[in-house]
Amino acid sequence: MMKLLIALALIALCHAGPLENSALSRLQRPFIHKVVIRSDNFLLFEFEWTPIESGIWTDPVIGYKMRVWEVPDAPSTRAQKYTMSDGKYTVLVEHQEKTEESMDDTKNLDNNILLEEILTPGDLPRAAFFNVRIGVNFEIRVSAYTRTHQSSYSSFTRMRVLPNKPEETLDSRSITITKD
């Protein structure tokens, strides 16, 4: 009887999988470290983030989810301002710092409208967003996922494209922003 109880307990533990709070079951959140804004025939944003390893060979990272929200509030006064070379657009970009309140804080997303969820494979830590509209505030976050777990979302990157009067310009039709 005792052997049967031990066997049932072991079977139950095997099927339960890792505990949610265990160190092995937690994936690191990606960090968006490069943003490219292009204006050839249309506007698009390209994002690149740090690749994530699950640390569990039986449950590797199989993909990333990049979510793009329309947000009602504009980027703050901390936003960096960039001007496209053709002088048509100014782009405001704001990144949430790692030291700010929890990067997994998604409670502020309640007022935001989810526009798109872009899925990429686990070996491709980058994606492009093509539905860029002038004057709209966008918030972008990325999450890694395995077969059994999903990481917290990355810190936000907020962007807004504004029409521009010709001023100082850059040397190309794109802007690349790299974060350390």
TrEMBL record:
UniProt xrefs under InterPro entries: FN3_sf, Ig-like_fold
Keywords of the record: Signal
Signal peptide: 1-16
Superkingdom field: Eukaryota
Gene3D superfamilies per record: Immunoglobulins (2.60.40.10)
Protein name as it appears in the record: Uncharacterized protein LOC113500569
Name of encoding gene: LOC113500569
